[in-house]
Amino acid sequence: GLNLLKFGADGFDLTKFRSQVLAVSMFAEKKLVVCDDFLTELNQDQQDNLLKFFEEAGLQNSSDTVVIFYESSLPDKKSKLFQFLIKNSQQWQNFELLTGSALESWIKQEVKQQGAEIEPAAVVGLASNIGSDLWRLHQEIAKLSVYVVKDEIIKWQEVDLLVDQRGFDNDIFKTIEALGRQDKKTV
Length: 187
Hints:
It comes from Candidatus Portnoybacteria bacterium CG06_land_8_20_14_3_00_39_12. By secondary structure, the protein is an alpha/beta fold.
């Protein structure tokens, strides 16, 4: 089995974190611990205490506990906690958002995988209207590929007609939360 623990920087409690991460299960389970924005949102004292915990806990040698740090913005690479994590990580990776020509190349490749072709103006239109949201780009390209007749090129006109230009965030969870708060503007 797998035991999933997810912690956010907002309202972080080291005592709770420590007890849950170090808790031993009756069953032989692996733990996946996800830490959201710890390097960018925790204050210096919290980071220092967390560093001390990781140094003492020895999780870097554990095959039963995997800790993932997810940062929504770039952390301070000079911080002690960041340096410790880099030094003691089995693997780390930085996922950069695609922009410019890399994004346009991705769009062309995705269109090709969908079995269609696209004109340069339509590529630029998709990139500028949607940006680096690859999931949404994939969905819009799939829609455009179905719309154009087989062997026809996706043109700027189809992008303008079919792609929602508003850039709305259709996150169902945010919508439900807004409904619960009776926030009609957000809904």
